[in-house]
Amino acid sequence: MNYVQFYYPEGFAHCYGCGRLNPEGHQFKTYWDPEKRESRTEFTPKPYHTAIPGFVYGGLLASLVDCHSTATGSAALKELESTPWDQGPYPRCVTASLEVQFLKPTPLGPTLVAVGRVLERSERKVVVGTEVYADGVLTVKGKAVVVRIPEGWGG
Ligand SMILES: CCCCCCCCCC(=O)SCCNC(=O)CCNC(=O)[C@H](O)C(C)(C)COP(=O)(O)OP(=O)(O)OC[C@H]1O[C@@H](n2cnc3c(N)ncnc32)[C@H](O)[C@@H]1OP(=O)(O)O
């Protein structure tokens, strides 16, 4: 199964967080389950993504929620099109607002799993709820408003 970011048009694939064409970036990859209507991004932080030794830097966690949310929004908008989910291109979203709750320190080492759900969707805007788990423990919750990129923004 290909990931959402795989289907972004080339001009929108350079994001530091999730751009497949940015070799310096995190290259987050988000998978969309069309039946469950749920998204999933897995990422293993590097040892240098440290806040205090042993724990993940919060900015990285916010980035994960950010890009995971734009990808989830993209998949949710793709559902409105007549083409199948596994055929690109996908609509591209930007984040209008991002809330992150750090519920517990996130241990550095385990692969993080972000799970996203569509809370609200219109033709242009998607509200995405995300939970991030480390070793099965919920450590971060996020909520993002993502908006289909306006006409004429590259791509
Ligand atoms: C060219 C390359 C592009 C590549 C994209 C890569 C993106 C990678 C992911 C990111 O890192 S995003 C980076 C951080 N985000 C930004 O830089 C976005 C900056 N903000 C904007 O450009 C505009 O504010 C934005 C496009 C998000 C919205 O402006 P619009 O004038 O198009 O929005 P509009 O006022 O029409 O509102 C559309 C809907 O969004 C809602 N909305 C807009 N801003 C909001 C906000 N801040 N909070 C909550 N809701 C918001 C607004 O209420 C409305 O909801 P409804 O349709 O239900 O009425």
Spell out the blueprint of helices and strands:
Blueprint: E1 30-33, E2 38-43, H1 58-78, E3 93-102, E4 112-121, E5 125-134, E6 137-148
Antiparallel strand pairs: 1-2, 2-4, 3-6, 4-5, 5-6
The structure holds decanoyl-CoA.
- Give me the strand/helix succession: EEHEEEE
Q: CATH topology, which one?
A: Thiol Ester Dehydrase, Chain A
Oligomer: single chain
Tally of DSSP helical segments: 1
State the separation between the terminal residues, measured CA to CA: 24 Å
Textual characterization of the structure:
It is a peripheral membrane protein. Keywords: Apoptosis, Cell membrane, Cell projection, Cytoplasm, Fatty acid metabolism, Hydrolase, Lipid metabolism, Membrane, Transit peptide. Its EC number is 3.1.2.2. By secondary structure, this protein is an alpha+beta fold. It has a single domain (4-148), classed as Hotdog Thioesterase (Thiol Ester Dehydrase, Chain A, Roll), CATH 3.10.129.10. The chain has one helix spanning 58-78; strands spanning 30-33, 38-43, 93-102, 112-121, 125-134, 137-148. It has a six-stranded antiparallel beta sheet, covered by helices on one side. Strand 1 and strand 2 (38-43) form a beta hairpin. The model has no long low-confidence stretch (mean pLDDT 96). Bound molecules: decanoyl-CoA (MFK). Decanoyl-CoA is lined by residues 12, 15, 66, 70, 92, 94-97, 122, 124-125, 145, 147, 149-150, 153-154.
Question: What can be said about this structure in brief?
Answer:
The chain has 155 residues and is of the alpha+beta class.
